[in-house]
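Open question from group meeting: does this chain pack into something compact, or does most of it stay loose? Before anyone orders reagents, we agreed to write out a predicted structure and look at it together. Recording both the input and the output here so the notebook holds the full record.
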Amino acid sequence: VFLYMGYRDVPILFLISTLTISICNIVMSVLALREVPPDAEPEPGSVKYGVSTTLYSAVNNVGNHADSILLFTFLSPEAVAVYYIANRIPELFKDFFQQLRNVLIPELAKKSRLTLALKRKLNLLSLALFVFSLCIIAVLPFAFRVIYPEGYANSVIYCQLIMLSVAFANFTIIQKSFIEARLDRISIRNIT
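Structure tokens returned:
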């Protein structure tokens, strides 16, 4: 698409960045595989767990990037730029919340059931992260003046709305963590 439109540098930069990440991943995988003895037994259920989490991740990635393609196709490249700027800060916080979930899952997997005390702690964590998100939403107009040029000032309201959706989605992410830790796919389907 970019070559057709006359942008010759963009595909080259994309190829370089993709190759850099790919080479790093290959090197890290080879180093990690060297640590595993050749006669090591596979962990029971690890393949099933890997396939399940890969499928969830693939659906998440498709959903994350479909909106940009649709904006570019049906509106304009300028709309994609405004959307990207508005979406960048919420994406950083969304990644933070996802990493927090990844830290929680091994701890939650050790629990045999969802007790009232555990649910209360998860709700308290969700509430604290929600309040933190609201504070970020309040600071965004000032941060935009420092971070981005004046041409993107209209992205502030979009950024705040997207950040608000991330704040609300945070409740589901934290609550779903226990279910994912237990690998209860039926319950995950019923929640989402």
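Observations to bring back to the group:
DSSP finds six helices and no strands in the chain.
Helices lie at 9-34, 46-74, 77-109, 116-147, 155-182, 185-191.
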